[in-house]
Amino acid sequence: MGVRGTKPKENVASTKAALLSPLAVRPPPLVGGAPAEKEYIRLATELRKLGHLTAVNRQCLVNYCEAWSIAQDALEQLRDDGITLESGESGNKYMHPALNAWSMARKTMETEAKNLGMTPASLQSIKAVKPAKSDVPKDGPSSFLT
Q1: Between 6 and 12, whose confidence is greater?
Q2: To bridge 77 with a disulfide, which of 40, 51, 98, 123 should be the other Cys (CB 3.0-4.6 Å)?
Q3: What letter does residue 10 receive in the DSSP assignment?
Q4: What is the SS3 assignment for 125?
Q5: How many angstroms separate the CA atoms of 109 and 104, rounded?
Q6: Are the C-beta atoms of residues 68 and 110 closer than 8 Å to each other?
Q7: Residues paired with residue 84 on neighbouring β-strands, in sequence order
């Protein structure tokens, strides 16, 4: 026998509660080590206060924290060895490979920070988003049809 009655409408409050669940504050497994997990928890609590952290954009935060961890490791290597290295055979200087890793991690961090609304410009664009207005005029012959 088939289902009777009208299909129940989705509860907006329960959907919002599911998206803002406490699960979003705890880092998912294998985020990228203890420093990345600490950064995840720090940012997740702040982003939840702003309402920017949902289950939908959680992966952006994971990407940001993993890139942050890589950037920290690269900076540590650069502090220890310097920005340039010297070849043992010829004595020529070349750029430290960690500088490339740091640069790529910073680019990922910048992209994900924009996605999460963590930059001033992206925060303004998130605030500027307004719901679309209907193009149908309220007065006139079409008002009674809608």
Answers
A1: 6
A2: 98
A3: P
A4: helix
A5: 9
A6: no
A7: 95
Q: Are 113 and 68 in contact (CB under 8 A)?
A: no
Query: Token pair of 101, please?
Result: 């890793």
**Model confidence band, residue 27 (pLDDT cutoffs 50, 70, 90):** confident
Q: Say if residue 28's pLDDT is above 90.
A: no
Q: What is the dihedral of CA 75, 76, 81, 85, to 10 degrees?
A: -30
pTM for this entry = 0.68
> How is the chain split into domains, by residue range?
19-118
Least-confidence region, from 65-74, 82-91, 117-126:
117-126
Whole-angstrom distance, CA of residue 117 vs CA of residue 135: 30
**Residue at token pair 């979003």:** 24
Q: How far does the chain reach from its first CA to its final CA, in angstroms?
A: 36
Q: Which residues of 46-72 are buried (b: 16+ CB within 10 A; e: fewer)?
A: ebeeeebbeeebbebbbbbbbbbbbbe
Are the beta carbons of 65 and 36 closer than 8 angstroms?
yes
